[in-house]
Amino acid sequence: MNLSIVCPLFNEEDSLKELANWINDVCNSNNLSYELIFVDDGSSDNSWVIIQSLVKANSCIKGISFRRNYGKSAALNEAFGICKGNVVITMDADLQDSPDEIPELYDMIVNKGYDIVSGWKKNRKDPLSKTIPTKLYNAVTRKVSGIKLHDMNCGLKAYSSEVVKNIEVYGEMHRYIPLIAKWAGFTKIGEKVVFHQERKYGKSKFGLERFVFGFLDLFSITFTGKFGKRPMHLFGTLGTLMFFIAFLFLIWIGIDKLFLDQDAKLIADRTEFYVALVAMILGVQLFLAGFLGEMIARLSPRRNIYQIKDRINFNE
Fold it and tell me: Which of 169-173, 190-194, 215-219, 257-261 has maximum average pLDDT?
């Protein structure tokens, strides 16, 4: 199979039929065999009923329904585990991402050798309240991650099947799949300018809080990427620094008391003594955190906790 197209959704009943027909037309006109996986993330409208009707009408369409809303990362991770295409394309179900981009994204993975191709909504059809914070967010992300993408959070992306089968997306980490893939060893990451359409139905499911959560997630994924398998390298380094600071202060107090000012106040009355004491305590705590982190990293494999309500058209 050439393509797996993954569309996570939440309350998008108005756009599903049009999106499915559009994708079908594009793939058929380009002779691409495909599966279209709709992941209903606990919708409260008729999205799942519509998906069921689409599955009956088109055998290429498959559906997954969550019992409640777990978030986009859970939806993508579940679909990544069961998709069968050589190339996996993700796109939002609100019709703002154009299926007409699919053939070129597919070509960049298959013929140009990219591991990941990320869409860049260069001309966004969103209000300034979204576009300005997004520019700031992407600038910080490029600086911290070292990945030169203009639009890290674009939902329209293409992956080789090897990438999606070797990464795990959890929490709210869907924003940073390119970074997760980079830490997994997939470094050929490209970008393509994509057409961004105005929202035709419904309203956005993400508020401004996503930028706050996005920055927190960035620091989290950077930490786990660098130190997730070796936490002692971070905590041990910081602990050593604390011990070094304590040692310097104690040496200074000792030299000052013994040789420079023997009539000075008691050591226990000096500020430097308490700075050294606090630094030593912090050093011990950081080393203990490192040891605990090493034990957790080796003994506690991650597992998913979201519950699937139903699946249709999967050969299990």
Answer: 190-194
